[in-house]
Amino acid sequence: MATTAAAAAATTEKKKPVFVKAESLKPGTHGHNLTVKVVDSNTVKASGGTSSRGGRSSAARGPARLAECLVGDETGSILFTARNEQVDMMKPEATVILRNAKIDMFKGSMRLAVDKWGRVEVTEPADFDVDQVNNLSLVEYELVNVEE
């Protein structure tokens, strides 16, 4: 019995998160941990929660809120899509930790997002300046099918 408890404790031991820089983000990837500074935040949509999906109305949760936020670190910047309560955390000049972030493609360009499997945390201010020249969301990608 003691050996199974020790084995269970060994398997539930958490790995240390590996933090990456903005310049290393690539299309179609996920599981990124970043510490970024918010440069700008623009509310995109604050719809009334009357849409129904799959027979369930989202009115009980309230309106869906979306904001596009330019975030980045000293290596580059990217647009982050903040949803619902994430919008409140993404204030300009705030430093946030994005855990388990993924890259979504929107009209051929990269967007950073954190879904229900990730986390957004506000942390103490970082001492770097965001490189807005290297904006990864301004690079357009094209889907190419390769036939063998």
Automatic annotation (TrEMBL):
Single-stranded DNA binding protein Ssb-like OB fold domain mapped to chain residues: 25-122
Region (Disordered): 41-63
Pfam families the UniProt entry points to: OB_Ssb-like (PF21473)
Listed Low complexity bias regions: 46-63
PANTHER family, A to Z: OB DOMAIN-CONTAINING PROTEIN, OS05G0244600 PROTEIN
Name of the protein in its database record: Single-stranded DNA binding protein Ssb-like OB fold domain-containing protein
Species name: Anisodus acutangulus
